[in-house]
Amino acid sequence: MRAGDNKGQSLRVQIFEKLKNRIEAGTWEVGSKFPSENQLCNEYNVSRVTIRAAIQQLEAVGLVQTHQGGRTVVVRTHVRGAVSVLNPLQISNHEINIVKVLEYRMVVEKGTIGLAVQHITEDDLIALEEIFNMMLVHHDDIKKFSQADYLFHRKIAESSKNEILIQANQGIEEVLSSTMDTIVSLLGCAIGIRYHRLLLAALRVHDKATCEQLMEEHLQATIDGIKNFLEISKDPKEDQGE
Fold it and tell me: Percentage helix, strand, coil, to 5, in the chain?
């Protein structure tokens, strides 16, 4: 992991890697039931939050699937290369991976928040505060956290009061919300909490330059985190051309 990443995130990645390696080694066959959270907590001597996050990462890369009631099943036994790790989405028959989506967001959202800071109302700020509180409450529930994370960025777009930006955001809502799920599953909640707190404070004082700088830093940190995760997860055989 990069210097400065928190220990919880590092441990989550370690457990994910161990479980992924065991799945790829055939410890559990396709269709078989995955061990329960309690079993894995005892085996690896880590918290339920760490195990749950690792399982959500396994689900994000397509190795397992969790059903209603908490039952998790192995659905694949191998992840091939970076494209599979990113679980690419289909838009008009073109594959777009998460890094490409984040690069798009870097261009658009930096400008969007610069516009939003000039038009944001007190009601908008109250709504953003409520969404941020949802993120804090659900910091140990990746699905609910990612939903709140997406809503925070959508609300900034709405605060721009620019109908074209708002409609453009709505037009790719499925892509943005789906990639947010995977981003949070892979990187955890720390980056989102840190930058959303700072963004909210800068919006409250209508500091345009700081808002734009923070949004750029936020998305760049996310891009760097995803690229770092891909390096960790990369299949060594891919480098050998096999």
Answer: 70, 5, 25
